[in-house]
Write a structure and sequence with these properties.
heterodimer; A: about 260 residues; alpha/beta; six-stranded mixed β-sheet; four-stranded antiparallel β-sheet; about 35% helix; B: mainly alpha; ABC transporter involved in vitamin B12 uptake, BtuC; two-stranded antiparallel sheet
């Protein structure tokens, strides 16, 4: 469970470039819910994800996960409960390290890292078994550097890494946006499967309205730093992309100009 | 070059191999260009020399020097992590401060080590002349440090340090305290450098406040020369390449100074160093053609 209460975020405060990225966001994602987030560029969807991960500092408001008030926790402290898959496949993995070493880092989120060797034989078996579900043959390439993998393979590895250990909340930041359509489908299918198998709470930011409605069980829309639309259950099931666009125009009373929302 | 000179070059080459390991850790692993070593090398020399002259056990004095170097590295990393001071500037600030501190520690610009026991005195028990046994001892010592260094980088903490340098955002997202890794890594690098400084002072029989000048370039030169000439894809290979780079570099300097027709003298050592580093960097930049040809010839 994650809860944002009255979160405000301002970038470059007190300078001519001052931008109010979030203006009073209240959001509660209960355990086991798969939330999808849409909105145009600069609407606040990525900022709200950064607020959850701890990468963006809040000006006011609270961030609570489970029974922990995390508002002042740095990224690495939150990592025990929150994991993240980035948009850029290069960001989620460490290309100079091998696949196994990358997993060793991910296991370290919930297990203490000390002066013991990072990757022992039990971990090797465990990682190989997890990689087998991808059906990409990566279980035979544990000692290859991640830099040798394709973007889609790296993103799939990131996703597996993010779902090791005791992760309670999975944050997906447009994690299929940098992939070709076929690979994007593969990674999205994998995401659905892992989230449902592990009964994770997940928040997925996406540029595609169709993807937002087809995935998960609740959809919210950001506009100018606020949540302007929130649908779940039968109400959401009845929605089509066109309805979402119409709703968007109605709630804003202005013409939608961002093509990105129409894509997909 | 005589055998005596070659052994002397090996001796200093091994000592600077420790500096090269430190430079590898900061520049290559952590991506934290650290200039503190200009001050921590003479710091190690000063701490060891003063303690030895005061009657301390030379081994303990040498370890104390390494601890002092660790503290110096910690200070630099702290300025960067806690206050966001640019890493290069933080290093320069601490190195400058250490210059004054070293003068205070030695109560003057140098501290001679005459007629006192050093770590090399105890090696005379082997019954061989110092110019033979010292390089052998230093070679074994550097090899042991290298093996420990390799092992450390494959532990959970070492892996976290590598991720910190390679991809800080990913490291933090995986629960690694990036700031703490920088503190530890820069500390270890400067401990190695101060350790090298302490050994250097004991070889040459004095600690000197000026002996740090150019140490950063020597360390960097060793890393660049070593990793461009030798395979360095894995950590184990890369650290070996750095040590070999340090020896080759000392050899190159010795040869340059020895070549009578060049008319160089000892005072020219810094400019020779700089020219060698520039040549190595230019060689790397131009597709490493020079090095590739040399490597091909080596294999043939």
């Amino acid at each position: 469970m994650i809860e944002l209460s009255d979160v405000h975020v301002t970038f470059n405060k007190g300078t001519p470039l001052e931008t109010k990225a979030l203006r009073g966001v209240d959001l509660k994602v209960p355990n086991g819910q798969f939330l999808t987030v849409i909105g145009s560029n600069g609407a606040g969807k990525s900022t709200s994800l950064n607020v959850m991960a701890g990468a963006a500092k809040v000006e006011s408001g609270r961030v609570v996960v489970g029974e922990h008030d995390m508002t002042d926790w740095p990224v690495h402290r939150r990592a025990r409960l929150i994991s993240r898959v980035f948009q850029d496949p290069k960001l989620g993995t460490c290309e100079d390290l091998t696949i196994l070493e990358n997993f060793a880092l991910a296991y370290g989120r919930t297990r203490p890292r000390g002066l013991r060797f990072a990757s022992g034989r039990p971990m090797r078996r465990d990682v190989a078994e997890r990689l087998r579900m991808l059906d990409l043959g990566l279980e035979n390439r544990l000692d290859d550097k991640v830099g040798l993998l394709s973007g889609g393979q790296r993103q799939a590895v990131s996703l597996l890494m993010a779902t090791t250990g005791e992760t309670q909340l999975l944050l997906l930041d447009e994690h299929t946006a940098a992939l070709d359509p076929k690979t994007a489908d593969f990674v999205l299918g994998l995401t659905r499967r892992i989230v449902s198998e592990l009964k994770l709470t997940a928040v997925m930011v996406t540029h595609s309205m169709a993807q937002a409605l087809d995935t998960g069980d609740r959809t919210i829309m950001f506009h100018r730093g606020r949540i302007v639309f929130d649908a779940a259950g039968p109400e959401r099931d009845a929605l089509a992309v066109e309805d979402l666009l119409a709703l968007f125009r109605k709630s804003q009373g202005e013409k939608l100009t961002d093509d990105a929302l129409l894509l997909g | 070059m005589s055998l005596f000179e070659i052994l002397g070059t090996l001796e200093t080459g091994f000592v600077f191999g420790l500096v090269a390991l430190g430079a590898y850790l900061t520049f290559r692993v952590l991506d934290f260009p650290d200039l503190t070593v200009e001050g921590s090398f003479p710091l190690g020399a000063a701490v060891a020399a003063v303690l030895i002259v005061a009657g301390a056990n030379p081994w303990i004095a040498t370890l104390a020097a390494a601890a002092a170097g660790f503290a110096a590295g910690l200070a630099t990393a702290w300025l960067n992590v806690r206050f966001g001071i640019l890493h290069i500037l933080a290093g320069i600030l601490i190195a400058i401060s250490l210059y004054s501190l070293n003068l205070r520690i030695m109560d003057g610009p140098n501290e001679p080590l005459l007629r006192v026991d050093t770590v090399f005195t105890s090696l005379q028990a082997f019954g061989l002349p110092g110019y033979v046994v010292n390089p052998v001892f230093l070679g074994v010592l550097v090899l042991l440090v290298k093996l420990g260094f390799d092992a450390f980088l494959s532990t959970g903490t070492g892996l976290s340090m590598r991720a910190t340098g390679a991809n800080p955002a990913m490291a933090a997202a995986n629960g690694i305290d990036v700031g703490r890794m920088k503190l530890l890594g820069v500390g270890i690098a400067n401990a190695l450098t101060a350790f090298a400084g302490a050994l250097f002072a004991q070889i040459f029989g004095a600690a000197d406040a000026y002996m740090g000048i150019g140490v950063i370039i020597v360390g960097l030169a060793s890393v660049i020369v070593g990793t461009s000439l030798f395979p360095s894809r894995t950590i184990v290979a890369a650290t070996l390449a750095c040590i070999l780079g340090a020896i080759l570099y000392r050899l190159a300097v010795a040869l340059a100074l020895n070549a009578g027709f060049l008319g160089l003298q000892a005072a020219d050592v810094q400019i020779v160093t700089a020219v060698l580093v520039i040549l190595a960097l230019v060689g790397q930049r131009s597709g490493g053609t020079l090095f590739r040809i040399m490597r091909k010839e080596n294999r043939a």
